[in-house]
Amino acid sequence: LVALAVVGLVFAVSRPLRRLADAVEQIGQGRLDTELAEEGPVELRAGARALNSALASLRTAEAQATALAEERLDDPILGQRAPGTLGMSLQSAVSRLTESLNERENFERRLSHQARHDSLTRLANRGATLEHLEQAMQRSAKHHRPLAVMFIDIDDFKSVNDIHGHRAGDLMLSTIARRIVTAVRTSDLAGRLGGDEFVVIAEDVPNEQQALELGQRLLDEIAQPMTIDGTTHHPSVSIGVALAEGPFDPDEVLRDADLAVYRAKAEGKRRIDVCDDRLRREVEERAAVEHDLRAALDADQLVLHFQPTVEAETRTIRTVEALVRWQHPQRGLIQPVGFVPIAERSDLILDLDRWVVRSAAQQLAAWADHPLMADVSIAVNISARHLSHGVLAAEVADVLQATGARADRLIVELTETALFDDVTVAAAELQLLRDLGVRVALDDFGTGYMSVTQLRSLGFDSLKIDRSFVAEMSSSQNFPLIKLMVDIGHILGVEVIAEGIETEGQAALLTSLGSDHLQGFYFARPTSAAEVEAAVTLAHVSDNLPPSIRPADEPSPEPTGRGATVSR
User: How far is CA 32 from CA 25, 27, 46, 79, 99, in A?
Assistant: First the structure.
């Protein structure tokens, strides 16, 4: 009996123990899904129960590790906590890793947002705007729903930066951006292309009238006064609209809107213009003129005419202004208003400026041997674009050296607008020109925003009062204004020239106000170098300048948007 009891005890212990050993071996091989049978004596059952609990903890840890590896941070398994030190360590690792992954996701979201949004205004940036436009065009073509692209350009924004500083400019940009978002529909996209240029892409705009209504809301909202650093501003914008439906090229639609905003600015600013076939034809015509003008520079089709400036007291010629004309083989003599504004829209104006400077210097060199013309100076007009490139003085120096012209007989005329494009660059270029011996004149004085302090710092040799003031000098407002401009010039120690003189009365009055020199059709229209030489010779012989030099083929100047003639 004892033997049987021993054998029974051995079987009761050995079998569960063997199964337990097999299970432990499987666990050792990584099979954590093994389930231990809780059988046999009390001690074995307790051991199996403990191992099953440990296995459950390991399975939880394995599941948590898998969820973390797969970045399933919302998996409920990560909320379970295994018992003991291992569980605490795992839970701490889960928390740290979850926090790290959340930070990385937030950082990636911020990067993605920054990659598609303008940092100053928080609007869609150029890349995101163009991408949205392309997608909107595809939807328009698919569903036959028209859309409107609105190009928004802030009027006179540069003067805000120049006068009030870039901080004020940035605050104005961000404020206008918020106003754009307020004015448009929630379905519209507002983006900033760069600088002071914004775009609104409005889908489902069935006709021009609805586009104009949206544009008017933008104009009205943006025009509300804003106070920046204690200064109240009254911003305005010009808006160009392009309507499109179907498979159009997004770049062409944006170009059409840009063309429309350019025309809106030319017609007075603070308005809306819609691109149409007439505008597109004008663009094509301008492109043709630009193409022909490039050829004209190489084909020797340009000529210089000269308009004398006379001393106010003696009426003798001391200076002539060089004015370019285009002798077109088919269209005849083209005045500058017919091609200079087109050249100014591209770098072609740089080549035109260079041609004028070189031709003027060649004429100075030719006159150097003329006994009556050697002391006559030539003034040339230089564009804002050329001045901003920072190479003008170096180019003038090369021309003077190549032609042998006297530097003190060359006068460079610049407008206030040209100087405001970059005052720092302008000041440096003007100083370099003066170092060469070239004189510098401020053209169209009174039409810009230049302060007396800036006038003094830039060191002009002469100021030219704009013809628009002379034309209305009988006005009770303009008369004292002209007197003030003359006095400012003399206080600064520079000569004052009044342009646009068309009557003896104007000449006499401006002389009495202290103007040093006079220029205008009353004395002479632009004419050839030979005609100028003849006039100077006649004046020398008769000791009296004739009242005018008026070639029959020289029409009256055409006005530009600034109330002056294009006089390059």
Answer: 11, 6, 19, 20, 28
Residues 246, 140 contacting (CB under 8 angstroms) = yes
Angstrom distance (rounded) from CA 291 to CA 274: 26
Q: What is the pLDDT at residue 563? A: 31
Enumerate the H helices of 368-451 as residue ranges: 384-388, 392-403, 416-420, 423-436
CATH number belonging to the domain at 126-275, selected among 3.40.430.10, 3.40.50.150, 3.30.300.180, 3.30.70.270: 3.30.70.270
Q: Are strands 495-499 and 517-519 parallel, antiparallel or unpaired?
A: parallel
Whole-angstrom distance, CA of residue 35 vs CA of residue 554: 109
Q: Where is 368: in which H helix or E strand?
A: none
CATH number of 284-542: 3.20.20.450
Which pTM does this prediction carry?
0.63
Chain-centre distance for alpha carbon 213: 26
Instruction: Give the pLDDT of residue 34.
Output: 64
What is the DSSP secondary-structure string of 98-128?
Answer: HHHHHHHHHHHHHHHHHHHB-TTT-SB-HHH
Residue 555, pLDDT score? 46
pLDDT at 375: 92
Strands 439-445 and 462-465: parallel
Would you say 244 and 149 are in contact if contact means Cβ atoms under 8 Å apart? yes
Q: Tokens for 125, please give them.
A: 């940036």
Least confident of 91-100, 216-225, 291-300, 421-430: 91-100
Say how many residues make up the chain: 568
Backbone dihedral angles phi then psi of residue 32, each to the nearest 5 degrees: -75, -5
pLDDT > 60? residue 57: yes
Region 337-344: mean pLDDT is: 89
